[in-house]
Description:
The complex is a heterodimer. By secondary structure, chain A is an alpha/beta fold. Chain A is built from 5 helices and 6 strands; from the N terminus they run αββαβαβαβαβ. Chain A has a 6-stranded mixed β-sheet with strand order 1-5-4-3-2-6, sandwiched between helices. In chain A, helix 3 packs parallel to helix 4. The longest helix of chain A has 10 residues, at 81-90. By secondary structure, chain B is of the alpha+beta class. Chain B has helices at 23-31, 39-59, 89-92, 102-106, 114-121; strands spanning 8-13, 64-70, 74-81, 124-130, 133-141. Chain B has a 5-stranded antiparallel β-sheet with strand order 1-2-3-5-4, covered by helices on one side. In chain B, a hairpin with a 3-residue loop joins strand 2 (64-70) and strand 3. Chain B is globular and about 40 Å long. Chain B starts with 7 loop residues before the first strand and ends with a strand. Chain A binds chain B through residues 32-39, 41-43, 45, 52, 54, 56-59, 61-62, 64-67, 82, 90, 120, and chain B through 18-19, 21-23, 25-26, 29, 39-40, 43-44, 46-47, 50-51, 54, 95, 107-114, 117, 121.
Amino acid sequence: MHLEEIRSIVNGDYLYKEESRDLNIAHAFATDLMSDTLFLIRRDEELILLITGVTNPSAVRTAAILDIPAILIVRGKPVPAPTIEEAERQGISIIHTTYLMFSTCALLYNAGLKDAPWKI
Amino acid sequence: MENIEAESFELPVKRGDTGSIGSQALAVKKKLGGFFTKNDDLRRLGVCIFEAEANLAIHTSAGGVITITLLHNAVRVTARDTGPGIADMEKALTMGYSTAPVWARELGFGSGMGLKNIRRVADFFDIKSSPKGTEVVFEVRKHAS
Lengths: 120, 145
């Protein structure tokens, strides 16, 4: 699913869009725990969308360390400028939606996104 | 490996510098991009350093230092601090057990997964702790592509 389609489904806005890559994303991982996100390793090179309500720059760095190319921030939370600046530095797109996480996940699951591979 | 300036280098991590958590891990990942041939190995190293960095920023009295050493077929990382040490190592290595303060949890950290993740992901893991400080050593090895 292309990033633009994801943005459209959640009626979101780009806070930053990395223009150098045409992202085709098949998997998503939704959490407010960056510690849980860091369990997303040992995988093929499939592209993953991180869905979260965490808005600080560490969320972007967590995505970057895992080669996650896009973040969808839910609940309409204001995103501080340092987070957007970090996204620009790391080349990670950020979409912002007012939907809650539950609804966001339901919409994207029904549209075809699947779970990212996660194992405890 | 042209971008690697030395076989060993140190990265300071300040206590409570939550706005920077992950910065050192990303810097190392960028610096050592040519060392590994598999992306997964580089990701594993980045994740382990990220976890160590978060632990130093959240759980120590005065921060600490991460030392990166390049070996022939692996990267060895040592994270040292000066206390207060881990009171119950068994619990600290139990999934989900955490002593992290509320402010760390609000940032998305401190769910009790960090040390366990390093032990799970790294090819070698060792930890020693006393009230004078904690030393975590781990290695991530190169795998053929």
